[in-house]
Design brief:
The protein has 25 helices and 23 strands. It has about 850 residues and is α+β, with helices and mostly antiparallel strands. Helices cover about 50% and strands about 15% of the residues. The strands form four sheets. It has a six-stranded mixed β-barrel. Strands 15-16-21-18-20-19 form a six-stranded mixed barrel.
């Protein structure tokens, strides 16, 4: 232990004598460690953390295959949604689960202690907390007896985070009343700290028994409809049962359920009936919770993690090169120490202690870099974004990961230079009058050249990757949206959560439209049930008057419920017919407007105007098509053209939430307060949320892609800088070692330009070998991330050419200074010094 302390003190003194070298080495390692720690913090929270429940590895997510008919609610894959009657049958008759829970995300308006706010809720089955193994921190949680009679269990459990934030951890909240979506509930408990539901990124503030659904969503019950798919299921396997075995065992329970439902599936031919009966339930890993966040950001995060790993490799290569150069500069010191009795093991130990010191200092500086990087990354997301909700931070897991990374990096890339120093021949080193062993110097140049070649290859991979993402984002930014976003402000209200009926909501919408239209500078106002370009969508069945009589036709159509002047407000061109009017209410005949894709698909070769349509469960063709509009993007910027049917919200008997669009020449700063005042005058208890400009909404929809471009570009730039430093260092060292050779060449008549070409020839060799390795590796990376790209192939020639050209420019610029210095060598001075 004494020897180690001595070595540590010596290492510290040695670094104090070379502050420039120490700063360069520590900064190089800190940048690599910090970038990796920041991205790992996100990956860990979003992809690697198991749910904070009992035995999470026993949990499985249920997904159904096969066709379905009726209404589907989903925030991801449709197969993840089940009807409540199917859930009941699976829960009561399966032999593979020790418990099966149902849940449904709920937007909640919570009124308590004189204040109303919008919160995030979750409807859960009575066995939810019991099956998950989540005990209460205060009071109690739900039990199976709290989920029996529809509407008969007005209870609530608060999450610990919400209890702390909203009530300051006040225990008197227990058994108090809160009003959720217009229904009075009694708070019976608070969950333990750290548990906020089973979907990472979505924090549930309030849990309500699922039997209260009709009260929580008064315009949509669905509890008894086997063709209404809305609940998500999570099961706990019986002890010792594998997923594969359970999936086989579950088939025997699921088949009779499908057979009982088959008579309800209308217009199915024999093929469709067979597909329906052959449907299966697939069990997926459930220990990480619901997969929406993992599906949405999994590949982008893993791509960034791969990129920062390459940055770390480049940083470590630079560190190894710096340590090797430092070892060469200290050859005489090592030779003297060996000559006076120091052992090679002592030299090796001393070098490794220096590497350890670099690792510790690099780790400390890297944590500062990681904290700044993580804050910058998360700050780019909106407050309510899933990535903000996971609350990634530099916690002990991230610190442990970073410490391991720092130690491995320091030792792995420092062991080579340390071993070389320990193998010095003291006699040959001292005989060299301070120049060291020429053969060792040549070996050092080859070693550092190999590292630089690897840096060029890795940097080229990062440059091409950043280029692919940049071109993809540019393509997304140039997509024709089919609407005019400039000058439009949008905001949302949810009257249904405050107990409004559909009729009252429609009345409120009309009065609010009139109030907003009277504001100075406002040219038009309208509203829609589903906000555009927010990844929100709804689909249903559709039949048309063009279908052959008696034919079994069932098609899926995407749907939105919109108000008068919706299309003109958003700048969506009307192709034929008319828009909706205020007269298109419940007393008027039902009407609809199709987009061009729907009109072509449903009524090929003829006009859709005047044709009739049925939507949803009804077979009656009682909806007249009164207009056709241009296609526009509905869910996201990158969606492909698909059939949309629009119906007036004045004819919607389940209207509960609306997003308003206000077209104005005034900025959002000038209109924000008047909009809130207009809503407050109509209902002081009605919260306004998501108030922003439509261009800002579109920008937020591309946020993930923009962040990928920003960080991949930053990582590529950092890699290029490190590679440039590496190239410069190798060539500068090489010029110093070859000074006599260069002097001889110039004495024999070589001109400065030929000397520069001699040095830059090494750069071309780095580029040629590095390119031969890096370009195929970049192609492989492109194939991996191709699913994240839009409108660009992984083998896009312009991107590869640009990456190679940029790498060549960086390398030649880095090599120019050593080449110029070599061309200015005085032959007499060079020969005299030898």
């Amino acid at each position: 232990m004494t020897f180690l302390l001595q070595d540590l003190r010596y290492a510290i003194r040695s670094l104090r004598k070379s502050p420039g070298f120490a700063a360069a080495a520590i900064a190089t390692l800190a940048l690599g460690i910090g970038a990796n720690a920041a991205i790992f913090a996100l990956v860990d929270k979003a992809l690697l953390r198991l749910l904070p429940v009992r035995a999470p590895r026993e949990l499985v997510l249920l997904r159904a295959t096969g066709p379905r008919q009726g209404h589907t609610w989903s925030d991801g894959e449709d197969g993840l949604s089940f009807s409540y009657p199917v859930y009941r049958d699976l829960r009561d008759h399966n032999r593979v689960f020790s418990g099966l829970v149902a849940m449904f995300p709920l937007s909640a308006s919570v009124a308590s202690r004189g204040e109303t706010e919008r919160a995030s809720g979750e409807l859960v089955s009575g066995n939810y907390f019991e099956v998950l193994g989540v005990p209460p921190a205060l009071g109690r949680v739900f039990g199976p007896g709290d989920d029996v009679a529809p509407g008969g269990h007005p209870l609530a459990v608060l999450s610990h985070a919400y209890w702390t934030r909203r009530y300051g951890g006040d225990p008197s909240v227990l058994n108090s009343a809160i009003v959720v979506n217009g229904t009075t509930l009694t708070v019976v408990g608070v969950t333990r700290a750290g548990f906020t539901g089973v979907q990472p990124g979505r924090v549930a503030d309030v849990f309500v028994p699922i039997s209260m659904k009709a009260k929580m969503t008064p315009f949509w019950d669905g509890m008894d409809d086997p063709k209404d798919y809305w609940v998500q299921l999570l099961g706990r396997l019986k002890p010792g049962l594998s997923r594969e075995t359970a999936q086989v065992g579950l088939a025997a329970t699921y088949r009779p359920i499908l057979e009982s439902l088959l008579p309800r599936m209308e217009n199915y031919d024999d093929t469709r009936r067979a597909e329906f009966l052959n449907g299966k339930i697939v069990l997926g890993e459930g220990g990480f919770g619901r997969t929406q966040l993992r599906t949405g950001v999994g590949k982008p995060l893993l791509s960034l993690m791969g990129m920062v790993a390459l940055v770390l490799l480049i940083a470590c290569s630079n560190l190894a090169s710096l340590l090797a150069a430092r070892g060469a500069a200290r050859q005489r010191e090592y030779g003297v120490r060996l000559a006076v009795g120091a052992s090679r093991a002592q030299l090796l130990r001393q070098s490794l202690v220096e590497c350890l010191l670099f690792s510790v200092l690099g780790l400390a500086a890297g944590m500062a870099v990681a904290s700044w990087t993580l804050h910058a990354l998360l700050s780019a997301f909106p407050e309510d974004a899933d990535m903000r909700q996971i609350a990634a931070q530099i916690d002990p897991r991230v610190l442990a990961f970073s410490a391991i990374l720092a130690l491995v990096s320091g030792f792995l890339f420092g062991i080579g230079p340390a071993y070389r120093a320990a193998r010095l021949d003291p006699v040959r080193t001292l005989r060299g009058s301070g120049r060291g062993d020429p053969a060792a110097s040549r070996d050092l140049v080859r070693f550092r050249s190999t590292l630089v070649t690897a840096q060029v290859a890795l940097t080229l991979v990062l440059l091409v990757g950043a280029g692919l993402f940049t071109r993809s984002l540019r393509n997304l930014g140039s997509v024709e949206l089919g609407l005019k976003a400039d000058g439009v402000i949008d905001f949302s209200v949810s009257p249904g959560e405050n107990g409004y009926t559909a009729e009252r909501t429609a009345g409120l919408a009309r009065r609010l439209t009139e109030s907003l239209s009277a504001l100075p500078g406002v040219s038009s106002v309208s509203a829609a049930e589903l906000p555009t370009l927010t990844n929100s969508e709804s689909s249903t069945n559709a039949k048309t008057s063009a279908d052959p009589p008696g034919a079994r036709v069932s098609r899926r159509t995407f749907r939105n419920v919109v108000g008068p002047a919706y299309f003109s407000t958003l700048g969506i061109p009307l192709v034929e017919g008319r828009e909706f009017h205020w007269k298109d209410d419940l007393a008027a005949p039902k009407v609809a407007i199709l987009n061009e894709t729907a009109a072509r698909e449903y009524f090929p070769g003829r006009s859709a105007l005047g044709e009739r349509l049925s939507i949803g469960k009804s077979d009656a063709l009682d909806i007249e098509i009164v207009g056709v509009v241009k296609d526009s993007k509905g869910s996201d910027v990158g969606e492909k053209p698909r059939a949309y049917a629009y119906t007036p919200y004045l004819q919607d008997t389940r209207l509960s939430e609306l997003t308003f669009y206000v077209r104005s020449g005034a900025g959002v700063d000038r209109l924000a307060a008047p909009i809130r005042d207009a809503v407050k005058r109509l209902d002081p208890q009605l919260p306004v949320f998501e108030l922003k400009t439509l261009p800002a909404q579109i920008s937020e929809s591309l946020l993930t892609q923009r962040l990928i471009v920003m960080f991949s570009g930053a990582f590529a730039a950092l890699a290029a800088l490190l590679a440039a430093i590496g190239i410069y260092g190798v060539l500068a060292f090489s010029v110093t070692q070859r000074r006599q050779e260069i002097g001889v060449r110039m004495a024999l008549g070589a001109d400065p330009s030929s000397v520069r070409r001699l040095v830059l020839g090494d750069v071309l060799r780095f580029l040629a070998i590095g390119g031969a390795i890096g370009l195929p590796a970049a192609w492989a990376l492109g194939r991996i991330v191709e699913s994240l790209l839009f409108g660009v192939k992984a083998t896009d020639p312009p991107v590869f050419a640009a990456g190679a050209a940029l790498m060549a420019v960086v390398a030649l610029v880095a090599g120019y200074l050593p080449a110029r210095r070599a061309s200015r060598v005085d032959p007499l001075d060079a020969l005299r010094s030898e």
